[in-house]
Amino acid sequence: MSGPAIDVAAWSSRWRTRSPGDKLLLAGGGVVVALVLPPWPAGVLVTAGSVALAVGPAGVDPRVLARAARAACAFIALGAVSLAVTWQPGRGFVVTGDGVAAAAGTTVHAVAGTSAMLLLATTTPVSDLLHWMRSRGVPEVVVDVAGLVYRLLFVLLRTAEAVRAAQAARLGYSSPAATMRSAAGLAAAVLTRAWSRARSLEEGLAGRGFDGPLRVVAADRPSSPRFVAASLSGLALVVALSAVVVLR
Amino acid sequence: MHIAEGFLPPLHAAAWTVVAAPFVVHGARAAAREVRERPGNRLLLGAAGAFTFVLSAVKLPSVTGSSSHPTGTGFGAVLFRPPVMALLGTIVLVFQALLLAHGGLTTLGANVVSLAVVGPWVAYGTYRLASALRLPFAVSIFAATALADWSTYLTTAVQLGLAHPGGDVVASIGRFLGVFALTQVPLALAEGLLGVLMFRLLARLAPEELRSLGLHRALDAEDGVRLPEGKA
Fold first, then answer.
1. Range ranked top by mean pLDDT from A142-146, B39-43, B75-79, B226-230
2. Does residue B195 come out as left (phi exceeding 0), alpha (psi in the -120 to 50 range) or beta?
3. Which residue in chain B is spatially nearest to A4 when comparing CA positions?
4. Is B6 part of the contact surface with chain A (CB cutoff 8 Å)?
5. Mind listing the pLDDT tens digit for each residue in A218-228?
6. Which of A12, A96, A192, A228 is a good FRET partner for A62, with 20 to 30 A between their CA atoms?
7. Residue B68 pLDDT
8. How much is the pLDDT for A185?
9. Are B97 and B128 in contact (CB under 8 A)?
10. Is B166's CB within 8 Å of A71's CB?
11. How is A24-37 classified by DSSP, letter by letter?
């Protein structure tokens, strides 16, 4: 296992070398526009635009994008069902026209916002975002701890997968009781490995005289005026089209 | 239970961000103080955050036939204290949004309040209360973990009910509670059991670490040896 598929997509995206701030402007703008403006046409345009940019210029594998979206859609579907049904005394749960309209609108907002967020997530590695955040004045300790979490989680995910495979091979997940025992063993093993790895790193760094933030070399990714202009134009177009539809 | 991107209206998203901010700032200050006093603990904080993230990859059986993952807020609060969990929880929620498409950026404030503030404080409060009442350690951990899950789920239902009242806020909150109860009630019980089993294993595998975190009660419960009580 090489880590979450979204992270792999971000490292191999054609937009990998673009400025994180530029991509945050585009994707964050998409999220805000999708949230503030009516679902039609803004939500639909943001969804279509985000997916088209991700699989087109950014070169993200459509299957990775679809798998990532599927995870988010589980909550969106559950929330939409909750909005669509209403409890009425004597009649139980009933589906009303207003409920369905509210569920549809919220679902479009959520799908559009998730698409725009995925555009950022599948084109920008977290380490680039952290470097950008540090340069924008986010407190050192927050960026430092976040950087450590990011660097350690891949090792721990691999450990968790190996432990789980070993448990499964010994029928560790053959019944609900066995699953509980195995899950507890897995969590305890991951935590003790995390502690021991952190202690080893600490001793290794202390031996080399490091006692401050763990600074690493990060490539400078300058902002592109053309990308920024195109992003702002695209967002302005969505706002203008929404205004036309609403005012008509 | 993470609220997906775009599910909260802009004003609600902004309001929950304002509510979450002081807890996260307090957590960042607590972490900064910890790192200043003991520089090596920076790596332990990173390890704790990575562990919380990896917990979402642990599958628990669910009565609905599917499986679900633990939230980890209950164990995290007992192990690392609520202020630190506010910061670690926020970092983990950002990573879950960016690496797993679980949650969102505009809903981050609301998710921080339910998962990184309310859940950990309820867990820690329950654990301290159960310890003061001298309840067995296993009961304390089970109650802390299960109540952390239920309070998180209740907070999420309130957040969604306020955002989508449909004419009656109370009925709307009840509707979200009813729909989520199918998965969250058994999941909280399963996570409570997971917490008990995990601490029993940790008492055998990592007694020194538990002692350094002030969790002497976990060791007492495991081997019956009465050790001096630290800041539990």
1. A142-146
2. alpha
3. B99
4. yes
5. 777 889 999 99
6. A228
7. 63
8. 92
9. no
10. no
11. HHHHHHHHHHHHHS
User: Minimal Cα distance from A34: which residue of B?
Assistant: B6
Domains of chain B with bracketed CATH: 10-223 (1.10.1760.20)
Helices of type H across A170-224:
176-207
Supply A85's token pair: 């049904």
Q: What is the pLDDT of residues A56-96, one digit of tens each?
A: 999 999 999 998 888 778 778 877 887 887 777 777 778 88
* Residue A230 distance to chain B (closest CA, Å): 23
Interface contact flag, A180 B9, Cβ < 8 Å: no
Measured N-to-C along each axis, helices A62-84 and B169-205 cross at an angle, to the nearest 10 degrees, of: 130
Is B7 an interface residue toward A (CB < 8 Å)? yes
ipTM of the complex, rounded to two decimals: 0.90
18-37 of B, contacting A, C-beta below 8 A: 28, 31-32, 35
B190 touches chain A (CB under 8 A): yes
When pLDDT is averaged across residues B122-151 and rounded to a whole number, the result is 93
- Using an 8 Å CB-CB cutoff, list chain A residues near B7: 75-76, 79, 106, 109-110
Angle at B211 between CA B205 and CA B214, to 5 degrees: 135
Contact status, residue B76 vs residue B85, Cβ threshold 8 Å: yes
Q: How far apart are CA A152 and CA A154, in angstroms?
A: 6
Q: What is the largest CA-CA distance in chain A?
A: 73
The β-bridge partners of A85 are: A95
The rounded mean pLDDT for chain B is 85
